[in-house]
Amino acid sequence: MFTLWSLIEASLLCLNAVCILHEERFLAKFGWGASAQVQGFGEAPTVKAQVLNLVRSIRTVAKIPLIFLNIVAIIFKLLLG
């Protein structure tokens, strides 16, 4: 059954997946590494550059809160199944 908890759990799993992506080992194979952001001055950022910035921002900002959210999710699963 699709519930609010399953939606929260799915988003938590997706955030975990984004945070553990290794840029040099995984993303660089597909051309999404750190060297892929070569732009000229005044040019609008591409969609690829914006997605890479989003991944880096999530990795920077959400690392510590994700630890606590994972602990809460694990305790919730242990207590309520």
UniProtKB/TrEMBL annotation:
Keyword presence, Cytoplasm: no
GO cellular component terms listed in the entry, alphabetical order: COPII-coated ER to Golgi transport vesicle; endoplasmic reticulum membrane; Golgi membrane
Pfam families: Yos1
First and last residue of the signal peptide: 1-17
Transmembrane segments: 61-80
Known role: Regulator of endoplasmic reticulum secretion that acts as a key determinant of brain size. Required for secretion of extracellular matrix proteins. Required for correct brain development by depositing sufficient extracellular matrix proteins for tissue integrity and the proliferation of neural progenitors. Acts as a regulator of the unfolded protein response (UPR).
Protein name, UniProt field: Immediate early response 3-interacting protein 1
Organism of derivation: Aedes albopictus
Lineage, opening ranks: Eukaryota, Metazoa, Ecdysozoa, Arthropoda, Hexapoda
